[in-house]
Specification:
Structural class: alpha/beta
CATH architecture of the largest domain: Alpha-Beta Horseshoe
Bound molecules: iron/sulfur cluster
Shape: globular
Strand order of the largest sheet: 2-1-3-4-5-6
Largest sheet: 6 strands, parallel
Low-confidence stretches: none
Oligomer: single chain
Radius of gyration: 23 Å
Number of helices: 13
Helix content: 25-40%
CATH superfamily of the largest domain: tm_1862 like domain
Strand content: 15-25%
Length: about 450
Amino acid sequence: MTTPKYYITTFGCQMNVHDSEVLAGLLESMGYISASSCEEADLILMNTCCVRENAENRTFGHIGNLKSLKDKNPDLIIGICGCMVQQPTELEKIRITFPWVDLVFGTHNLHQLPELISRIREDKSGRIFEVWDCDGAIYEGLPVKRDNPFKAWVTIMYGCNNFCSYCIVPYVRGRERSRQPEAIVGEIRDLVKDGVQEVTLLGQNVNSYGLDLPETNWSFARLLREIAKNTGIRRIRFQTSHPKDLSNELIETIVEIPTICRHLHLPVQAGSTRVLELMNRCYSKEQYQELIDRIKNNIPGIALTTDIIVGFPGEREEDFRDTLDLVKQVRFDGAFTFIYSPRIGTPAANMSDPVPEIEQKLRLTNLIKIQNEISLEKNKAYIGTLQELLVDGPSEKNPQVWAGRSSQNKLVHFKPAPRIKPGGFINVRIAGAQTFTLEGEVIG
Ligand code: SF4
C-alpha cells in the first residue's frame, strides 16, 4: 500500500498560513506525506479567506478546476476549510455548485480533521459538511508542520471584538480568546530548542491579548517581557496591532527589550476622521498621528508599515486628500493598499454612497505612487548603515543573490559566501536601495 499524500492551498493572512501548518501537522500524524502538486495528491485541502471578494472568486475558480482531478480519481478527497466556509451563503454555494467537494469544516473545528477524514474514508458515498458557528475553545498541543526551520508563527489569541464596519473577521473567527501565557512561552521555548531564531506572534489585535484571561493583570507587553526573559528567542515580531489599543506600556517594553524587532505594522485604514468613524475604527486622524509621534519619539529607528483602504462608501475627494496628507506626514516605510471590497453581513455592505470603481482605481494609483516615492526615500536613508540580518537563503527571483531581513523587516539582498547559512545572522553595510528592497555588502 502506498503512503497517502496531501496538498494544501492557502489563501489569506498569516493566521491562515499558520492554520495550514497545523492542518499539515495533523495530516502527517495520520501518516500522510506532502505531495508536490495537486495531481499527485490523495487529499487536497483548500484553506480559504473571505476578507476580500477577489480571494473568494479565486477560491471558487480553484475548486472548479479540481473537478477534472476528481473525475480521473474518484477516491481523491477534496476538502475546503477556513474563513470562507463560516459564511452560510458561501457554504451553501459550495454544497450546491461543487458536488465534487467531499469535506467542509470551519475555523472553530480544525482540530477535528483526522476524525472527519476517517469518517469520509469509511463512508465513501457521503459528504461531510461540519462547520461550527460558535467560538471554538482553544486546542493546545496540536501537531504543527512548519515550513521554515528558523522562523515560526505563534498564535497568541484568536478572534476579534472590534467589528470594524467593513470587516468580516469577527463573524468568521469569533470573539477574542487568548491562549494561556504558559502555553505560549512553552511553545516558544520548544521552538528555540529546535533551532528557531525568530517568532512572529499572531492575533487579529495582539494589543488586547490577555483581557479575557481569568488572571486580570495580563497584557501584551507583559507577555512580550515573559517571552524575552524565559525563552532565549533571538527575535520577536508581532502582528497585528490596533492603534486604539497600543499602550505606552507596549512602547516602553519595545524600548527596553532589544530582541523585539524595530518594526510596527499599525493599520490606519483611512486618514479622514469622518471615514474612520464610518469604519468604526475608534480613533481620529489626529489621535493616530499623535500615537505615531509618541512611537517615533520613543523608539528611534523604528520602521512603520500600515494598511489603507481606498474608496470606502461615502469617501469624498477631501477625505482621500486627508489620507494622502496622513501618508505624507507619517512617512510609512511601506503600505498594503486595497480598494474597498464589500462583504455581505458587515454594516459597510449596506452603506449608501458607494465610490465609483473608476474613482476607486484612480485614488489607489495615486496613493501607491506617493507611498512608493516615500518608501524609496526611506530605504535610501539606510545607505551606509550597518544592519544585522537573519539570513533567509537564495532570493526567490534570483538564486545568485541571497536575501535576509533586518530588525526593521527590510528585505536585504547580498552576495552569498560559503560560511553564510540560512537561519544564521550576518552583518551587512547597506550599499543600495530600491522601493521594496535594499542591497547589502557582507562585513566581518
Ligand atoms: S480589528 Fe477590525 S479589521 Fe482587524 S480583524 Fe478586527 S474587525 Fe477586522
